[in-house]
Amino acid sequence: MLKNLQSTTVLHNGVEMPWFGLGVWRVENGKEAVNAVKAALKNGYRSIDTAAVYQNEEGVGQGIRESGVPRENIFVTSKVWNSDQGYESTLEAFDASLKRLGLDYLDLYLIHWPVKGKYKDTWRALEKLYKDGRVRAIGVSNFHVHHLEDLLQDAEIKPMVNQVEFHPRLTQLELRTYCKEHGIQFEAWSPLMQGGLLDNGVISEIGEKYNKTAAQVILRWDIQSGVVTIPKSIKEHRIIENSDIFNFELTYEEMEKIDALNEDKRVGADPDNFNF
Ligand SMILES: NC(=O)c1ccc[n+]([C@@H]2O[C@H](COP(=O)([O-])OP(=O)(O)OC[C@H]3O[C@@H](n4cnc5c(N)ncnc54)[C@H](OP(=O)(O)O)[C@@H]3O)[C@@H](O)[C@H]2O)c1
């Protein structure tokens, strides 16, 4: 199941999604995005996570085309931004994202944040896009349990993915359990806590045993926890480093030690209290 960085989890609709991918938040459109995406695909990555609000979909699309990797072998995710939420405006936003990416379908389209009073209409638009065959899977991001419960009351199609902040300081046990029970694949954003956890003693000590860096230990902990992960880097040596996690296995005790670092601490906004 976790053989290499092309290994996949099967979403509840049968679509395969790689456990591992490249995130491109704060990657500049143009050369930086093109090069990061090309470096990742050259080194075996098969999943790229972007969003309309990252303003780099053109660069991502160009990187995909220039990589020479066939489109059907790449899993591309994008997200509808908050100001575009609502039924018609989401359909338009989807078209605009596809156009910028230069693609004719997406693998996964997510509601970026649960905008109050809007996310149900947004979800109906995602259901339409899915039924029309324009996207292979649909999901949400930054949804707490109560957001999911509310959405599921009216949804025809259950989200296939929930992408949320997740790292050893924010292990989201309740949400993860809920997602698991409902067949919703849990996906981590800011898995490295944006670099803030790389000098942690517990993690580094575990890394020494396997001759792995702290980043590699954390990312291995993600996938062994059943969590899809999409670390961001624009540096090829780190892009390679981050993905070199399929040749060692953390013990149960080591997994527990990392779990115990949880402090329910966020580096991003709380989905119950965001102002963008
Ligand atoms: N849905 C959402 O609301 C949401 C929110 C945030 C993020 N995301 C997604 O999740 C992805 C990942 O999250 P993130 O970008 O916030 O943070 P992250 O992946 O936790 O950390 C990225 C930071 O760590 C550095 N880094 C990466 N690998 C490293 C390594 N091996 N050693 C040392 N430093 C390393 C990167 O710098 P360099 O680039 O200089 O290497 C960058 O500064 C995003 O890119 C985006 O796709 C989604």
Automatic annotation (TrEMBL):
Pfam families: Aldo_ket_red (PF00248). SUPFAM superfamilies: NAD(P)-linked oxidoreductase. Coiled coil: none annotated. CDD domains: AKR_AKR5G1-3. It comes from the Bacteria. Keywords: NADP, Oxidoreductase. Residues 21-263 form the NADP-dependent oxidoreductase domain. InterPro entries: AKR, AKR5G, Aldo/ket_reductase_CS, NAD(P)_OxRdtase_dom_sf, NADP_OxRdtase_dom. Belongs to the aldo/keto reductase family. This is Diketogulonate reductase-like aldo/keto reductase. It comes from Lederbergia wuyishanensis.
